[in-house]
Amino acid sequence: MAEQNTEAKLKNLLKQEKIQLWNPPYTDDDNQPGQQHMQELANRYAPLLGLSAPEVGVALELIRVLAVKRGKGNKMFRETNVATLELLLPRDSKKVLILPPLTHCGLILYLLLVVLIAEEFGLKHVKLILNGKTLSGDQPLDQQGVKNHSKVMVLKVSDAEWKQQLMEDEEKKKNQNESIQRTQKGFQILSERDGSEDPDTTPFLEIGDQKGNPLNIPHKEKKALILAMGFHEKGRSLMKKKQYENALCHLLQADQQFSQCGSALLASVDNFAVLQLDIVWCYQALEALSCLEDGRSRLQRAEECFLKCYGEQQQRLLRIKGNTGREDVLFLRLYLLQSLIFYIEGDDRQARIQLSRVESLYSRLVLDSEKMAQLMSLGFTDREARLGLRACQGDLQEAAIHISNRRQEREDLKQRERQRRRTRMEAISTLSELGFSRRDAARALHHAHGDVDKAYGILLDSSQATQSRCLIQMFASLQLLYLGFERVSSEAALRLTGGDVQSATQLLLDNQGFISAELLSPPSTSSSSSPSSEEPSTSSTCPEDTELVNEVLEDISHHEEDYLDLTLEEESELIAAMKTYLSREATLS
């Protein structure tokens, strides 16, 4: 990381002085370094960076070589459409790779890129990531944002020691893909359930506000949000196990699903901001933060989202929750990651400013072990103790009261939720006893916001409309029968023409009164009583679906503030590392 800091500072100095290392006198006609001028630069910059001239000379030569290769790549791309990619390998230096034209078939080019990486760097199984998104062979690389001189991160898919055989590596990759597919399928099933069945046997998910009240969200957006939150929960579960590569794959899937949600919804919840923090945290855990240019933009989006959700000076959060201590851990991570990015970019001053904010927060959030022990001796869990002490700024008595109140609030919320679901099930049963299906009853109740009388009116209107349509269809069919056509052909012709008797008659005449198998289509199976095509449906409850649902439910935390329950152990390690990196600069200055 120190090397990247030095490189960034040198690039800034070169840019300020408008020095182009790839041109004379720093590079001669044979692309060799101009020794005298390069040495003069090293001698001049060394005291500015607090490094020895030889150290600066090595860094300048690396920048010069990459600049020369980049210049060659630009010329080659203009003349031949052959691209150059800069690969950032795991725990390795930057490498430049020449690619065939980007206009080649996406799948072939992707596989060729993987083969070239394997041959050049000995990495047999890799995952390629550009700006936080995994590249795939399903579409051309240029359509995925790959350009000349793009920086592509290379992640190892196999174990670091490479002790596993090819079959085991493939099994690992297969398991990763299967995990993503099973997670998606499980939460898709849950997102389709409408709560018309007993929740004890057929679980379903609802999205609520900070007080636990269900939010009325359009079905399409709700489905995307459930998938996004599901992938996020799975990713966080893997992060706790320090399986950062697998976690990153799931978190990026969550990011894709969040992109399908409306901006107004994302601005009202902090889930999206927390996801951005988690993604960048995985980057730094994989020691790959510097090779992904979207790290800064993700943190910027997170900060903007926190501002919208929590308000200026966290006033909205204070009004809703009564305190802001628990959410401060999110800002600690945000400032810490920002400090890291500033350092990598060579901006030591901003890195120190952010690190100072981090240390101030850390001193408030780090917990007294004796107070933790006292609270746990009262029967509170370690999570409750951490969250309680942070909410009450370390006050032991206030924390105990706060935790007890939170327990009561959660119990009251559970009771209200049980009563609400019990009332809903009773309403569905009442409507089903009147002859309507449970699915249609659930849809009508959703449309009527739980009002049984309104739901009954919706179902009745829909039933009458259905009967009216049936009478019209029957009359049209009788007209065709009266003209001498057979019933099966008449009904088929009416379906094909949308019930228009004149068009159906002409169709039958054109086909000599017979509708062929090619034209014949089965009757529509759409629910006639559905108040809206966007309303949810109850998914099947086959054993495989039940297994998938139970599997994904295990990854959902049973505590609504699990994402705030950080021990700060990892943060403490990164703070210490940042202080070490910056202390050298402080001493020299």
Question: What would you say this structure looks like, in words?
Answer:
- Keywords: Coiled coil, Membrane, Transmembrane, Transmembrane helix.
- Residues 366-406, 414-462, 479-511 form the UBA domain.
- The chain crosses the membrane at residues 96-118.
- By secondary structure, this protein is mainly alpha-helical.
- Helices cover 62% and strands 5% of the residues.
- It has a domain at 1-68.
- It contains 22 helices and 5 strands.
- A 5-stranded mixed beta sheet has the order 2-1-5-3-4, sandwiched between helices.
- The longest helix has 38 residues, at 396-433.
- The two termini are 20 Å apart.
- Mean pLDDT is 79; it is low at 102-108, 160-166 and 521-539.
In short:
With 589 residues, this protein is mostly helical. It has helices at residues 2-16, 35-49, 53-80, 106-121, 166-192, 219-240, 244-258, 263-268, 271-285, 294-310, 315-321, 328-344, 348-365, 369-377, 382-391, 396-433, 438-447, 452-482, 487-496, 501-510, 543-553, 569-588; strands at residues 82-88, 94-101, 126-130, 133-134, 151-156. It is built from 22 helices and five strands.
